[in-house]
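S., here's the first fold you wanted:
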Amino acid sequence: MGDFLQNDYLLSVEKPARYMGGEMGAIVKERADVRFVLAFPDVYEVGMSHLGFRILYAILNEIDWLAAERVYAPWPDMEALHRSNGIPLATLESSIPLSRVDILGFTLQYELSYTNILNMLELAGIPLLASERDEGFPLVIGGGPCACNPEPLADFFDAFLLGDGEEAVTEIAVVYREWKQVKSTKEELLERLAKIDGVYIPSFFSVDYDAAGRIETLRPLKPGYVKVRRRIAADLNAIAYPGAPVVPFLKTVHDRVSMEVARGCTRGCRFCQAGYIYRPVRERTPEQILAKIEETLRNTGYDEVSLLSLSTGDYGCLTPLLKELMERYAKERIAVSLPSLRVGSLTPEVVEEIKKVRKTGFTLAPEAGSERLRQVINKGITETDLLNTAFEVYSAGWRLIKLYFMIGLPTETMDDVLGIAELAKQVKFQGKRTGAGGEVNVAVSSFVPKPHTPFQWEPQISYEEILEKQQFLRQELKKRKLNFKWQDAPLSVMEGVFARGDRRLGRVLIEARRLGCRFDGWGEHFSFPKWQQAFAAAAIDPLFYHRRRDLEEVLPWDHLESGVSREFLRSELEKSAACTYTPDCRSGVCSGCGVCDFEMIGMRLNGAEETRGGAPVTESGQPVEAERIRLRFQKIGRMRFLSHLEMLNLFIRAIGRARVPIRYSQGFHPHPKFSFATALSVGVESWAEYMDMELNAGFGAERLKEALNQVLPEGVRVLESHAITLNSESLSVIMESVRYRVILPPGAGQDLPGQVERFLALDTYPHRREKKGKVVAFDLRHETVSLTASADCLEMEVRRGKPLEFVAAVTGLPADALAGAKIEKLEVNFRSGEGRTVAGDD
């Protein structure tokens, strides 16, 4: 991104912070034997929220000779800049073009991100087809949940990693380094990689199809390389976990400490791919969880902790863990959220703990609208369970419950669909029972049969049937005054095609990319007509992949083993037809799925005993005494691209990292008590930014300056700090004028001294600015305190107005002619005499 930073291209795109790099926690290594780039094929805010990405980044960067860097899919406005300026896609850390790195590892999180992968390769100048890339190009590998059937991407990838990556990813890097040192062939590299457990080399298999288009044979091309089994990390406590993750400048999808308390699930919901491909259940010890949360909070400054697993409510000692977290952090207003609570796992003790700081939302997933259909899918909860849980949630003070359902499940009837509306109505009624009322949001997705599940042979309902059921639900929920959110039918159709697709879909992806498809998971960019055109051009019927599969049919992923046996999946399919329940393995009865060998691989569970960690407990109570401190800080270099809200977020995180005893506002969502003098425009460098902070008394101004400077990123530095009285007037009230320096773009300045003289000779210069639909009028001449010019540079002291508004008034140039101007904020003048510090003094 170096070219974009140096030339201010980022000022023309939405959210420049996506492309800046330089975040707190980012690791830059100038020299490395191997550069391993972690690539996320979606926008920055989504990728930065992905826990697996954070884990691998930390593990790889622990290796001295290896540099792990990041890249995300550029939003269309940024993509246009790449293409129009001929600048290749590069890493955030070192701005190295992707074509020059060693390993490019894509996270395969969602089927509708596949065109983004092709687009990123194209923007990097890397040939799309693996067969066209020799030793001079990066090794392109993929991993993540979609790697359990990566066949639609087989033509584009050199290798895939199936399963857990924490241990395997370092083995891949070691093999690559050894291969690089001897400068052997790419074929030799692939053969070495194939010896690593969990690594799948698609070019080492060939696929034959019969006359009906079904797979006839999956032929191994290397002796002994017949099947690839998923990699399983046997003990989560024995592998590294990031305690100092990268902290983004902008708000991301999940802007919090993400703590994985367990991996895997034993519930056995027959539709849930994650429940099968992440077996067996492996829980972290509460001691490790507490230690990692403490470390991460101090390294990030976050104010929320999310306890993650497929079913957090099943964690063996959840209640004592929550009690300990609340005892430590409630007074710091650090919230704890449980995004994956299962109906039936919620206890009054858990509710009591998580409501202590703030209620971060409550989601329940009944999945199906009838008791019968929940038995078909082995959900294992009853309507009574759900309603009792809803009553407890509303009674504890929550006013909104989100319910997740699916349509299109095997054997579903319209009565089952109607049951969704009826059940949601009953949940809402539980709010009335509490006397306080409550709302319900109903979210409905369309069932997509996934590989390695008992329903992998089942058909997917048609586009028309999805629309019919959605319309029916819309009407029924409206009658009951319930809110409805649904997944667009075309997206479900496409997801179903690529979830169970084969290698022939590579032709479709290439054609779709040629037609401009990317960000297909985003409704505003998805184009169903373009995809239909791509399928037609490739002579492939997408509905072929939605059909019911014969039980004896060769499936595209049959050479890739999840650990769960095919026989077990077939028996679960038979049980679903008979509405027979398969008990949870936690009950002590093994279901015989085939994952555990009961030596190395098996369930690792914690008991429900009380737990205490070694970190100090937060002192209770907020001191009555307070002090107010005024800071001057600089915002230069790449930090000039941060918006005012992003700067606010940066300081909130810095306060948390530095453990500054900031005081908070009152109310349900308390905020740190600090304020900025003004909002600085994006792209302006400043040596004179001011803010006031209110702290618990005794911390001191000099200590605050030192503490913040230890954690602030390069480009933001506190220059001055001093105490003021608590009742001092706010910065915005006492601010009188601001001094700027503006260096015009080459060729834009013509006789600047003469133009300045003519402007200053004016009595008035009315100006109108439209802001949020309202017109603001003021006089630029009257707001000018002083104005001087030299060559292509203007210096001004002004009371009101933006510097480029004055430049345009002086020169008569339109806004687009001034787009490349460099703006510096040098000084702020206050009534009290503060702020008379000029750039360069420090």
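And the second, which I think is the more interesting of the pair:
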Amino acid sequence: MPPTLASLVHHSALKLTVRAGRERLDTPVRWVHASELTDPVPYMEGGELLLITALKLDAEDADAMRRYVKRLVGAGVAGLGFAVGVHYEKIPEALADAAAEEGLPLLEVPRRTPFLAISKAVSAAIAADQYRAVTAGFAAQRELTRQALSDGPEGLLSALASQVDGWAALYDASGAVVATAPEWAGRRAARITADVERLRDRPAPASSVVGGETEDGADGEDRVELHSLGTGRRARGALAVGTASAPGTAERYAVHSAIALLTLVTERSRSLYGAEQRIGAAVLRMLLAGQSDHARGVAGDLYGGLLDAPYRMMLAEAASASAGRARARGGADADPDSGSRSGSGSGSGEVDADGVEAASVVLAEAGGDLVGGFVEVAEAAAARSGEAVLVVPDGERRLVVLAADGGAVVTACTRYAHTVGIARSGSEQGTDEDELVVGVSAPAGPVAAGAAYKQAEQALSVARRRGRVLVEHEEVATGSVVPLLADDAVRAFADGLLRALHEHDATGRGDLVASLRAWLSRHGQWDAAAADLGVHRHTLRYRMRRVEEILGRSLDDPDVRMELWLALKATAAVSASAGE
């Protein structure tokens, strides 16, 4: 610990005597300063032991001494040393009374003790304290390293909490708590996740302090230091260290050592990461080729039981924003069911303003790289849950993710895509950044990887066409075919096929389009269709003959009826979208 006034008083060679402020002798001494100025405060930083001979002071003037001592106390002076036998044979009562009144420690310095001796004693004590702190810091570094090697991040956190006499917590890239020490710190660590997320928005390395003293000077719950972990553009995690007060030199060494070690743990080397990706790519190729046994042999324990359990295959792709908006205008709004499905994008129905504002943070945090954000979410969810996940780049703008069906990774990725969709729906339409599109397969086993890949591609294609962020294959396989008609090519076909009928109806000579719709919906049953229209069946027969004449096609042909029905459904979808 640093030297205190008490340690100087007990220093046998200095022979100092306490004349006032005995109750504050435990005050640390940052430095020693000698000054004969009537106002030395402008040259003080606080924490000094001020030494004087009262050469220029009227030390017997009570009012002057009260003002002098008040200024010293206000500047944070640790104590006042008065040399007797120079200008005054003893400490004047006016100065002693003023010091006692303000609680300022007043030390009598005998004539045979030079000020230089006191300065040397303080300097030596400070140097010794710093040496002890550095030595303790190196010892803490060795202990933290040993714990990190033997017990991983959890052991390191336990050692760090012991070193700082507080608590420590580790967060992943998403800001979720990964581990804490001691165990009771989990609730405290969870309460500051918002502060961790704000730290993540700053360029690494970054740090901040939360808690501690409140604005009115009252003591807070504890003082928490937050430090980002990682060397890239975005932090790979964060470390929180909670203590009762600001850490000393030894504790600071321990914290910095922990940051370095955790960075090494969380920031994998480029070569290792590249090797894992190459293994993952090889495993995926084998799965797609139907060689599941070979894939298991190559993967070993790297992906746990992922290759044996039901999994989902997800294809994530960066799509052009302008094309995505065009598709959204042409397809997403025409899908009346899109708002009720998980992961829906810009056509996902109404979103309140608070939801848009909160979700827009996702776009800002991703920095335009939404596919990269998708990878981070998948890996963070896997780290928190202990699940295995296979992430393989598929070209420059696409990646393949293999994750357990119903697991935390699939849930987190779906939620991320849904949030991106909300943010997109509330963002300005003029952005040129790439947009995220995701296709998800149905649950599959190890021998069905090829089929799962095709399903994910089909879902991805539908997501592109409909301006959606995420589409699951179940939606395509079990949902209505009508939403798939919301496509420019299908619209053009429908307009061309039905245009002549619409032009006929516009003249007021009959309602051929509505009659055709009713007749097809009743599977050609004349009486039922005529009843729906409120006309005689002979009238309906006449109208259908007019349809055949105008189109030049026979309604007895099932292909013609199918095409006409799809054209009518596509036109209805467009009308419903325009009505919204």
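Why I say that: Residues 213-219, 321-367 have pLDDT under 50 and may be disordered. The radius of gyration is 39 Å.

Talk tomorrow,
H.
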